[in-house]
Specification:
Elements: H1 15-28, E1 32-34, E2 51-55, E3 61-71, E4 74-85, E5 93-95, E6 98-100, E7 103-105, E8 108-110, E9 112-121, E10 124-132, E11 139-146, E12 149-156, H2 163-175, E13 178-180
Antiparallel strand pairs: 1-13, 2-3, 3-4, 4-12, 5-8, 6-7, 9-10, 10-11, 11-12
Length: 185
């Protein structure tokens, strides 16, 4: 009998994480992407050690998942951010602080910059950014649009992962994202 190849399994938001991500979708009244896989040792349960969740009045959100190990010989960090900007499609503007000739200035600049090409994950096309501000500084960031809203996924380039490994992690996370719709209240 000829060998048959099974279709790849459809990604699933893990049961232990789903409630938290579903609650976020309902709070922001917009779809959110739940990860089905994260780089070790991260977990996708929100709240508690290793996670931070911020929702702004405009319903934009940041979910930060992180792990830090410091030792006398060096340290390691794994840090992944998920962002959503419901109803907004443009790259947001960040404020920086610089000193020029003794005067403190606060120039506005794109929060995500230095586009380094595009990648496709099924019908989702992401733009890769490598010069980012705020919580995404030192991260490689993937940005895409879904129904008029901007979404991003980023990972900090730091040991134990190289730049190439971070790209591999981002690709694997993108392939495993599960879109959760807000529940009606």
């Amino acid at each position: 009998m000829p060998a048959t190849s099974a279709a790849p399994a459809k990604p699933v938001c893990p049961a232990a994480w789903r409630r938290d991500w579903q609650k976020l979708a309902s709070e922001v009244r917009a779809p959110v992407y739940c990860p089905s896989w994260l780089p070790e040792p991260l977990r996708g349960k929100l709240g508690g050690l290793g996670s931070a969740r911020y929702v702004q009045p405009d319903r934009s959100y940041l979910v930060a998942l992180f792990w830090l190990d410091t030792t006398p010989t060096g340290g390691e960090e794994v840090h992944v951010n998920f962002r959503g900007y419901p109803g907004k499609g443009a790259v947001p503007t960040c404020e920086d602080t610089v000193t020029v000739k003794g005067k403190i200035l606060h120039p506005k600049l794109p929060c995500f910059d230095d586009a380094r090409g595009r990648r496709a994950f099924g019908s989702t096309k992401v733009t890769v950014y490598t010069a980012n501000q705020g919580a995404d500084a030192w991260h490689v960031l993937y940005a895409w649009h879904h129904r008029g809203s901007l979404y991003t996924l980023s990972e900090h380039v730091a040991p134990p992962f190289t730049y190439a490994q971070v790209i591999g992690n981002l690709d694997r996370m993108m392939r495993g994202l599960v879109l959760l719709q807000p529940e009606s209240t």
